[in-house]
Design brief:
about 40% helix; 3-stranded mixed β-sheet; TIM Barrel; 8-stranded parallel β-barrel; Glyco_hydro_1; binds 6-O-phosphono-beta-D-galactopyranose; single chain; alpha/beta; 19 strands
């Protein structure tokens, strides 16, 4: 039997990228140093192949050609981000005029093709000058971010369909303050909590500023909603999953959508002496400025079990004291990235939003498959990435099921339209609908790019089942 996976009228099809992963740095472009640029300058060996953030997929130079590729791959929506360090090189104060020209040209080019444009203000990239002042550990950065957000609304609001405050704000918390794969790569739970709180406050201030600038404009936050699945029904495993979800998901989801933090999370912070410094006014700002819609990035589930580590007074507090990873036997996996593939996670997210968060409007803002050595799949000049098509299809089927069950999802954006630079992994894993020949900078459509155009045109796909 052939099943028609058709999506609701007006459903948006596209992809996401970020400024720091796509633009690159050109001589004379006036860009200031970001935390990534700085980290690469002092520890290039941390970056795969020692390829740093200045050598990304050269969107700064080639955006006109890349925007054509958006059309060729059926985009009706596209998300990118402004680099704070490009627009305001020192984080505060002077604006870099070439950056204004660049972003206006890019945004105009996208809109002229009838593609909806979602612009994110922050994708893991802080101007280094602000990092030196303490980065997100310092509340001062919140006000600097608010001023930056206001500047963006003033300069670009006429060209932007929808705004986004932050991409995956829990990631810099986890990776930069509880782990070591983002700068400043230190492990300090109290600092991690302060960073998370300051980011949430900054997000709410940007929502407020966006609406003050243009009451009709919608603004979201993008969260990696990784559902936490317990190893078993055992109460200790169940508790571990609940706490993992509190830390990794609900710490931003609840304040962003409902305006307040879960009591259980606040109790835990108090129990371990981790509370950040908050004022009633700040909590009021968070309460009053929830987002208009939500972006959801989904790659993999989080499988957890009861922790094996017990916290002793004086220990460095770690997530491992609350939950331990659980390796599900026989799981489906993308071996290149080491991430489990669990399509049903998207359905579970859809229902969680429907049932526990008042069924807000949301979009999938990232989902994708990074593969190493894709050139081995080249046949007659084109990368035949059937694995990527299967990956997307599998997730779209679960999304379709969630939408049929009433969840309010309005679009799907893949990560990403062209192979791009990826933080510490640089160009190891390729994600694009379009192949980037790193040496020649030549762009070539992959099979998935052609397939996606067809999906977008027919607003879904047919599948023999
Ligand atoms: C998300 C980020 C993206 C992108 C993607 C793929 O978490 O928002 O910036 O990088 O993951 O992950 P990676 O690049 O680490 O393979």
């Amino acid at each position: 039997m052939i099943k028609d996976y058709r999506f609701p009228a007006g459903f948006l099809w596209g992809s996401s990228t970020s400024g720091p992963q796509s633009e690159g740095i050109e001589a004379g472009d006036g860009k200031g140093m970001s935390n990534w640029d700085y980290w690469y300058s002092i520890e290039p060996e941390r970056f795969h192949g020692q390829i740093g953030p200045e050598q990304t997929s050269t969107f700064y130079k080639n955006f006109a050609q890349d925007v054509d590729l958006l059309v060729e791959t059926g985009h009706t929506v596209f998300r990118t981000s402004i680099q704070w360090s490009r627009l305001i090189p020192q984080g505060r104060g002077e604006i870099n005029q070439p950056a204004v020209n660049f972003y206006r040209q890019v945004f105009q080019a996208i809109r002229e093709r009838g593609i909806q444009l979602y612009v994110n203000l922050y994708h893991f990239d802080l101007p280094y000058a602000l990092q030196e002042e303490g980065g997100w550990e310092s509340k001062e950065i919140v006000w600097a971010y608010e001023a930056y957000a206001r500047t963006c609304f003033q300069l670009f609001d006429d060209l932007v369909d929808r705004w986004i405050t932050f991409n995956e704000p829990i990631v810099p918390v986890e990776c930069g303050y509880l782990g070591t794969c983002h700068y400043p790569a230190k492990v300090d739970a109290k600092a991690a909590v302060a960073v998370a709180y300051h980011t949430q406050l900054a997000s709410a201030l940007a929502v407020q500023a966006c609406h003050a600038h243009n009451p009709d404009k919608k603004i979201a936050i993008v969260l990696n909603l990784t559902p936490a699945y317990a190893k078993s029904q055992d109460p200790a495993d169940q508790k571990a999953a609940r706490i993992a979800e509190l830390f990794q998901t609900r710490s931003f989801l609840d304040p962003s959508l409902q305006g307040s933090y879960p009591d259980e999370l606040l109790d835990l912070l108090e129990e371990y002496g981790l509370q950040p410094q908050v004022t009633d006014e700040e909590l009021e700002v968070i309460a009053r400025n929830t987002v208009d819609f939500l972006g959801v990035n989904y790659y993999q589930p989080l499988r957890v079990q009861a922790p094996s580590l017990t916290y002793q007074e004086g220990d460095q507090l770690l997530p491992d004291h609350f939950f331990a990873p659980y390796d599900l036997p026989g799981k489906k996996i993308n071996p290149h990235r080491g991430w489990e593939i669990y399509e049903q996670g998207l359905y579970d997210i859809a229902l969680n939003l429907r049932d526990n968060y008042g069924n807000p409007e949301w979009l999938v803002t990232e989902n994708g498959m990074g593969v190493e050595g894709e050139e081995t799949f080249r046949d007659q000049g084109r990368i035949q990435d059937d694995y990527r098509i299967d990956f997307i299809k599998g997730h779209l089927k679960e999304l379709h099921r969630g939408i049929e069950a009433g969840s309010n999802c309005k679009g799907y954006m893949m990560w990403t339209f062209i192979d791009c630079w990826s933080w510490l992994n640089a160009y190891k894993n390729r994600y694009g609908f379009v192949e980037l020949d790193y040496e020649s900078q030549e762009r070539r459509l992959k099979k998935s790019g052609l397939w996606f155009k067809d999906v977008s045109r027919r607003n879904g796909f047919l599948e023999e089942e």
